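User: Show me a protein chain along with its predicted structure.
Assistant: Here is one chain, sequence first, then structure tokens.
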Amino acid sequence: MRAKLVGTVGSHPCVSAELMLRHKGIEYSRMDLPNITHRVILPLMRYRGTTVPVMSLDGHRISGTMKIARALEALKPDPPMFPASEGDEAWADSVLQDTIRQLARWAIGKDKDATLSFVAGSPIPMRGVLMRAMPVVQPVTAFQMRRPDETGRASLEALPGQLDRVDALLEEGVIGGETPNVVDFQVAPSVRLMLCFDQLREHIDARPAGRFARALVPEYPGRFKAVIPTEWMPF
């Protein structure tokens, strides 16, 4: 049994899919497409939808982490990732995941070195090819990912409440138990991406959410320098 995971550099949902594959003990290869180009390339690869991660598994093409989780569970029930709270999984897959995605995209438009830092620190295949392409790819990616300041500020304002919810899930034992479940695999990469921000790292590291994310995702290449206006800081 072998899987092929297709994603983009720095994608936290792709990290979620990798955690699930490792948990199941399924061998896999990973191919990363340049950010934004996946929207055009994925349909050409006969995947439904235009977002990552997508996966080829046992002859089937699957899109999205929630569908990937269920396909993996059906194909290899042991070790289990379920039962898990569907409401918390859906929140992590949509609300939490998208908040940090929007903030990261806003920050890429402010920090010209951010995209390169994610590629340079990544262990993915074809890293060298992507590095050589960066002088062309980087400005195009930054332009296409750009988000207005209102989006960046709104994402920051949402972070304390979302981190409070992660801390509460840990306190309640929904995540962070001896055996991780699908909610663990959804939540940890999003919080781990938050830790790539120089201005957020110290505060998040001091919380249970930060310690949990580092335990499940010890390494996460990439860095966002101090691009957040001081008056925007939510902590």
